[in-house]
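Thread: quick sanity check before group meeting

JM: Hey all, I'm pulling together slides for Thursday and realized we never actually wrote out the predicted structure for the chain we discussed last week. Dropping the sequence here so it's in one place. If anyone has concerns about the input, flag it before I start.
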Amino acid sequence: MHLPLLFFLSALLLWLSSPGPGWSFCAWFALVPLLTGCATAAPKKAALLGFVSGLFYYLLLIYWVVISLGTYGHLPWWLCGLALLLLSAYMSLYLAFFCAACSWGMRVAAPVWSAPLLWVSLDYLRGLLFSGFPWQDLGYTQFNTPLLIQAADLAGHHGITFLIVMVNCLLFTLAPWTRNAPRQPARNRLQTAAALLLVVAALAYSLTRHQLISRELAAAPGIPVAVIQGNIEQDQKWVASKLQQTMDTYIELSASAVQRQPAELVIWPETAMPFHPPTSPLFPLVLARTVESHHYFLLSGAPYFVEKGQDYELYNSALLARPDGSQALYFKQHLVPFGEYIPLSDILPLPGPVVESVGNFSAGRDARPLAAGRARLGVLICFESIFPALARNEAANGANLLVNITNDAWFGRSAASLQHLAMAVFRAVENRRSLARAANTGISCFIDPAGRISQATPLFTTCTISGNPVLFEQKTIFTGFGYLFPLICLICLIPAAWWIRIRKSGV
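JM (edit): ok, ran it. Output follows.
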């Protein structure tokens, strides 16, 4: 096959495996054409082809950026297209580096171990650099196959990515067109056998763990929860004359939900209260018609001001109102660049945030759970659910129920809402915690500690769901130290690269 077509075939298969197209099985062989191309192309050419095919893949994957910035952020369409192109190009650099490194190393070593180490390391760096954007790492493609992802409680979603890349490398190594390649057959056979054993062991663990968790779920205590999906239009949400109508919608939906099935906890989405609670006359009325009348815990998103001398700080917060009249707050820790804060705003005259707010949001620093009766809530606001460390810190600090409140109206009817949900699934599996998800326009749902989704709501529908998510207490290996897996992969790359360089110098 023509060399560029091999790279573009992999890009197409990667996109088909992503949430949206939903052909998740494609991920297990999507990289075989790319690896075949890397085996024949020089490193520079492999990097170029990797970059161009990566650009093709990411333009298809994150096209929703144009919708978010154009339709809801009201930016010019040419600027939205430029933003999409620049972000896709940045993410493609990682694939270009992967292709160049594979091409460089394949002359002397089979990629069954080095390529998974490299891929996971690059994902890890992408999740850290420039505030991090680990959107749709390869492991997330398997969110809808619970039987295959239970090993995430050992090494997180990065562990699933590692296995996917390793299976791709095994298929490539065992393929007829690579069997006669001059690569020290005895050494390759040993590496291949070890990789096969790891894949089989991981699959056996996942199947066994799924059965055990299913039995534990049947016996574990739960808490009755109602999730409210208000479906408030984004361009109406912050209009002052619409605030009472918005609150009436949430209050009436909540009352209807608890009448059908009593709830100890009612969850509203991100910024469901589009006002500052301590100073708004609406807030006491909301409490009177919800918490005080029905005696449940209410968790809702709201902007929150904290005075700092003559100034103030604005937080994207989750407010927990308790039946006894007390309240607790969680402030969002990981903010969206250019959406919730302006990078280098003290140095550069950059444009304001896309979200409608007064100035920049400040980042919270407290990962302590919010106590709601028997439940200790580990709150993740919006895209905080895509960062494993945040949910892991909540679980390590004692959270026995994860809650993801989000808006997602910014995504329109694109695949982004499903992509966002896919990443939240892994936060439940990694920490073995139930996760309740409340999204303004969907997808709202419950996710159990085995990663199974229930009662997923349609997009742009006004509705409620009720469930009894279990309250697990035990810590997983991932929560304890397994979260270090991608860092270990990055460290292991140093001796791996050194060994390959030694082998190349001897050829």
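AS: nice. The CA atoms of residues 48 and 96 lie 6 Å apart. The chain has two domains: 3-217+483-506, 221-471.
JM: adding both to the slides.
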